Amino acid sequence: MEKKRARKVVKEKVVVDDIDDGWGWLVQKGIGAAFLCIAVFALLIRVATSLHSYSGAGNPPNFGDYEAQRHWMEITLNLPAREWYRNSTTNDLSYWGLDYPPLTAYQSFFHGLFLKNFDPESVSLFTSRGHESYLGKLLMRWTVLSSDVLIFFPAVLWFVLVHYGGRSSSCASDIAWHIAMLLLSPCVILIDHGHFQYNCISLGLTVAAVAAILSQKDLVACVLFSLALNHKQMSAYFAPAFFSHLLGKCFRRRYPVLEVAKLGLMVLGTFAVLWWPYLHSMDTFFGVLSRLAPFERGIYEDYVANFWCTTSILIKWKRLFATQSLKLLSLTITILTCLPSMVQQVLAPSSKGFLYGLLNCSLSFYMFSFQVHEKSILLPLLPASLLAMEFPRPFWVLTHYAMFSMFPLLCRDKLALSYVALYALFMLIYLAPCGRRDGGKTRRSASLALLPILVTFVYLSSLILHVIYLTIPPPERYPYLFEAVIMLLCFSHFVLFAFYTNEKQWRLLSKFTSTNREKKLI
Prior knowledge:
Layout: H1 2-16, H2 24-27, H3 31-50, H4 65-78, H5 102-118, H6 134-165, H7 172-183, H8 186-196, H9 199-214, H10 218-229, H11 239-251, H12 256-275, H13 282-292, H14 307-311, H15 317-320, H16 323-347, H17 351-368, H18 378-386, H19 392-405, H20 407-412, H21 416-430, H22 435-438, H23 451-471, H24 481-521
Helix pairs in contact: 3-6, 3-7, 3-8, 4-5, 5-6, 6-7, 6-9, 9-10, 10-12, 11-12, 11-16, 11-17, 16-17, 16-24, 17-18, 17-24, 18-19, 19-23, 19-24, 23-24
């Protein structure tokens, strides 16, 4: 009993220190109470955002992502699993055909059951196309809210408990601030509860996998990350980081081959269960795979702030190169830019290095991989949020430009008001007093010496661009001029940020080497 009480006192010590700042009223009851308060507020913000417009609202014949998600519920509910990815008279793949892995299909099926119970017309085969009744929209919004509450919120809580559980010196206000940064990320809220998607599921599963890694539950992490991969194939942005970190840990164990085999079996087993309906026929299996890699759409779509789209102003990639050549080129560059981060984790696996690896690998995928969307910036933004306490100011700038890169998309969805409101809320929370950030405990590197001047300049530039985009029509000769300028500005920042975070990760290797030398001397 005494030991249990002692453990409880240690856990509470993290929370009761430094309660005199702006977060003191929230954190003095403990991490659990602080998380609950922030979670309830975050849920209310999501509800408020969901009252606004969404992708393709009232815009026939194809509508937008809202209709795509609803149509997948219609298809999965009314057709057998083997027909979900196959073009037929009952499943026209040219109209929002299912192009995500099987776990998304199963999620659509269960959400479709929910809608059918209350509004059967919203998921009836054929006749429900473009269905936008008030009840149908309400139920669709509830499916996203429930996904957040059931998957993303618990995953964040697990991460926070694991990440700060062994740190008796952690400032309580820092923990509350970090929880708020994770649960009130404006980009995720705008895309999931405004534009309309279910990123909270794949991102939540990824956060849970990260928490499992940090708590040394590697087998559980393999299952959770495999689930994330099978919900959205874009979760592959994180795969090099998971692979290199786990491989580095296996090399340091007594039987490395056995450890690798155990992890591999967990991954294969999870994939086999989820893909079971499609493993009985090679044609069916490859038919599903072809749906998950729509190379025919080109190397990029719209104006996304990555390398291919930004440089296309000077180099017309789609005209000069065949799709096959571009696939090989993008794959090569993506792997090469991921390699430094992967090598660091194989040589010196650590919890902090793993988080940096997630960030650097996902940034490489966002900037150089094939078929990137504006919304894909959510993937590198996730590990950046997990590391927010390590570099608060760069994290704020990254969030600013992540939002800005999606601004034209959100304006098309008529979500400009939500965009402004959520950005203002983010800034209020970011600027709230917080011990570690305000106390000057964080060591600033030489590369950040000119950061305040640079941040002020680029912030004012982007603010002016916001106003110009909303108030001044572009020249007739260059109808996408403003989108191109926004894309160029955002991409420039993403490149600088990638250099900065890669340098931070490799600095961990020197610390690891010096620690090993000290151990040998002892």
